[in-house]
Amino acid sequence: MHIAIAGNIGSGKTTLTKLLAKRLNWKPHYEDVESNPYLHSFYQDMQRWSFNLQIYFLNSRYRQIIKLRKSKKTIIQDRTIYEDARIFAPNLHEMGLMATRDFENYISLFELINSLIKPPDLLLYLRADVPTLVKQIQKRGREYEKSLRLDYLKSLNIRYEAWIKDYKESNLLILDVNDKDFNNPEDLSQVIEKVQTKTHGLF
User: Fold this and answer.
1) Which residue range is the domain that position 53 belongs to?
2) How many whole angstroms separate alpha carbon 106 and alpha carbon 100?
3) What does residue 130 show for φ and ψ, rounded to 5 degrees?
4) CB contact set of 8 (below 8 Å; sequence gap of 6+)
5) Is residue 151 part of a domain?
6) Active site residue 32
7) Which of 80, 69, 81, 74 minimizes the C-alpha distance to 27?
8) Within a domain: 134
9) Annotated catalytic residue: which of 78, 129, 176, 179?
10) C-alpha 174, offset from chain centre
11) What letters, b where the CB count within 10 A reaches 16 and e where it falls short, cover 3-30?
């Protein structure tokens, strides 16, 4: 089974991926952040590196999906291939940070890849308000994220909500994480209960 976690920057995807994998004996697949050769450059100059970054993520996630679909274990994935194409790339294009020709090229490549892959069996969407995102981003203290603007996070949140509203590709579980701390045993147990209820019958 393939389970994926979606959500804005700072919503808690990596933390929840790690904890669910540990508690439910699932195999985690994390977003390629530390070894990403474009991420730091992107945050320093978004317009110059936006297309390069999105192509890197598209390639990385496609390879990840091929690999996890061959696995006989239940996989939980930190961020999906859809978020780049439905959230981040369109947002960069609208903000004038990705040229139209690059955006159209990217979307064309995504649509080709999308026709070759299967969606996750279950998508977990972590819904968080901007103040919650900011708090989490500051807490983890990644140097390259210090330049993130509130209007950027807000515009991403608007796109996330629009995408989730029309999401029909697979089973969906929406988790409001504004008042949740996944490292709190009680909060985590509540999330696990909801996830297990949703996955019942899918295995």
Assistant:
1) 33-177
2) 10
3) -60, -45
4) 126, 128, 133, 153, 156, 157, 160
5) yes
6) no
7) 74
8) yes
9) 78
10) 13
11) bbbbbbbbbbbbbbbebbbeeeebebbb
Q: At which residue do the structure tokens 């509203």 appear?
A: 165
Structural domains of the chain, count: 1
d(CA 137, CA 149): 11
Q: How far apart are CA 16 and CA 18, in angstroms?
A: 5
Write down the pTM of the prediction: 0.89
d(CA 29, CA 9): 17
Q: What is the pLDDT along the chain (203 residues), one digit of tens a residue?
A: 899 999 999 999 999 999 999 999 999 998 776 778 998 898 889 899 999 999 999 999 999 898 888 888 899 999 999 999 999 999 999 999 999 999 999 999 999 999 999 999 999 999 999 999 988 888 877 776 666 778 889 999 999 999 999 999 999 999 999 989 998 999 999 999 999 998 876 54
- Assess if residue 48 is contained within a domain: yes
Write the DSSP string, the chain: -EEEEEE-TTSSHHHHHHHHHHHHTPEEE----TT-SSHHHHHH-HHHHHHHHHHHHHHHHHHHHHHHHT-SS-EEEES-HHHIIIIIHHHHHHTTSS-HHHHHHHHHHHHHHHTTSPPPSEEEEEE--HHHHHHHHHHHT-GGGTT--HHHHHHHHHHHHHHHHT--SSEEEEEE-TT--TTSHHHHHHHHHHHHHHHTTT-
Instruction: Answer yes or no: is 127 within a domain.
Output: yes
